[in-house]
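Troubleshooting log. The previous structure file for this entry was overwritten by mistake, so regenerating from the original sequence record. Sequence copied from the archived sheet and checked twice against the printout by T.R.
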Amino acid sequence: MKKVLFFLMLLLPFVSCEKGPEGVVKAELSISRNEIILDSDASVEELVVKSSTYWSINDIPDWCGTIRPSHGEAGEWTVRIRGRFYEEKPDRTAVLTVVAGDKSETLTLTQRGHKQIAVSPSVCRIPSAGGQAKLSVDSDFNYDVIIPQNCSWLSVVSSERPAQGEIVLEASKNTESSDREVVVTFAQKDGEYIKEVQVVQLSTASENRYYDGDVKQLLAAKKGNGVNIVLLGDGFVAEDLAYGGEFDKMIATAQEAIFACEPMASLKDYINIYAVAAESKEKGIGRVTAKNTAIRAFFRSEDPTNLTMNLDPEAAYSYMNKAGLTDRVNTAVLVICNTDEVGGTNISWPDGRCLALCTKVGPNHNGLVGVINHELVGHAIGRLDEGYVYNSGYVTDEYKATLAERHAKGWSLNIDTTNDPTQVAWKHFIGVPGYEKVGCYNFEGGVVFMGGGVCEPENHFIVQDCMVTNELYFNAPSREQIVKHVYELAGVQYSFEEFIANDKLRGAH
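Regenerated output below.
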């Protein structure tokens, strides 16, 4: 018996691993499929590998996220294949090889490109009388436009389905007492991509107000490229959005305020103004935390004497986008908050983005008009800096460095940290007839830092300035900076000589 067992043990190495003529192990190998398609958003697919011996997956491309396991011993294995996030549009493909001994199988791995379809507006409103509405389409694939079968009042007029172009819908008259709506689907042919658009046909009773995202152009530029200003409201509920209601009153006041003083009064022909309605669930704005409002604006402090405010920048910019504008740096945005508490703030970023906020009232006799000129015209359009004291002590090195960076960009040229008339940012005004009041004032204290170290071009203790007290007056270098920035955006050549010739306040103070 012992001899038989010993003989069988000697045979085991030879019968368990049969080899071919070149020493390669003969194997049995199968995979569950030979093609796998991954989506662009790092999707996961599974592959079943069955092998009678050690196996491995070879030729794995760099763009493939993970393959686990990529090798294993004899048996049945479930392999999970995950892609990376892929932002390009073309598909990408690689051929992988699964090898076990003398057997191999090919696996074609494809990751779909990032394809999409954009349709605007996302909510389409049609008046009760019916008629046509146009949807703008930008698609990476062929698509169908699908209206639910139970919707008899809406149809697709367009026979073509352009990759970039318009789809025209047509609605019959709405004789019902309420709005009616339907979801229209833009669906990829032979694919899974879809885009849904809400189509609302108003009733007669609901036509006399703005809806969330409605855009109204208040002013169109007559010269240059057009400098864009967007007016938004936060804390305005449905009743405030009635035509002629609270929102309309606020945007009318804001439009007048923008041109209430020089130099904007003389720059009106270069300006586009858009108003975008934002419907909030709650009226007004909160303190410390936001209410349920469209742009989520709020006061930063419980202290009512603290006028600083905050908001959700992405929400504000999403409403700006509804006006067809995408340039966050060069579009001036004002958010007017629906509250009778005093407030005003400028939120800015190093790249030049700037959001201006204010409430319906202001801290002095100029009210909302003064705040708008300070926050929107001064900060957002002119890139001017604060002139009032908000720091104790003497100017810091950190402030000097930050101001120098802004000066290098052509910003904040209404203040400086030197009182040398040959070096100060507005030195080109000094000695020019009509600008005798321009000099270097209050370096010893009273501008930005209580202890001194910052000077201003005109003495605001004698003639109050908008960037200090919200007065409807900008000093000469501030007026120049506003003009230069408007000209730059409008594509108009600027010259100092032309500024002097056209400055209506030359010699006024």
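Confidence is low (pLDDT under 50) at residues 1-17. Archived copy saved in two places this time.
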